[in-house]
Amino acid sequence: GESVGLHLPTLSVQEGDNSIINCAYSNSASDYFIWYKQESGKGPQFIIDIRSNMDKRQGQRVTVLLNKTVKHLSLQIAATQPGDSAVYFCAENIPGTALIFGKGTTLSVSS
Amino acid sequence: SAVISQKPSRDICQRGTSLTIQCQVDSQVTMMFWYRQQPGQSLTLIATANQGSEATYESGFVIDKFPISRPNLTFSTLTVSNMSPEDSSIYLCSGGQSMNTEAFFGQGTRLTVV
Hints:
Chain A is mainly β. Chain A has strands spanning 2-3, 10-14, 19-24, 32-38, 45-51, 56-58, 62-67, 72-77, 86-93, 100-101, 105-110. Chain B has no helices and eleven strands.
């Protein structure tokens, strides 16, 4: 797989590779985090979430890791497919407020 | 999950006019939100739509420019008033059961002001 440094806007991978998308969140009071996938011309689609009392959560082909010490969130996509090509956003939630979105990473998967 | 429908999906409007965007949810949701997304950018929260009371606006957004209605638990509208080209953007409606649970999004309304 290929790892993206923080704040890099794009990630290009080959089909079948594992992808890792990183996100730094801003507020230590945030206790809920979501990864969204947004395809061109569509609204954000929920992928997976994690609460601050966990450090890892797995879904189908996706895993989210949370490191509260350094305020870092990552999304791992196993066996990346062309259909995974999209913009991925992390979002954080401070109790009592609405979701705050990060800058987004564009994932491009080539066959 | 909730399915959120927005109308219109896109529009081209003359400067100085207003556009009202409708958001319909297929089930009752406690929370509804409106976001703006500039092309190639992230989402910025405009306001939280409160049922039966005035919306709660984020810094930089005011009720006179973006009046919001929420008459019930499944419907909300956002009006973009006195539009200028700077208002050209994608406007997204979102709904969820609380502040800290998953929020679902509509497909967005792509607004171009000429």
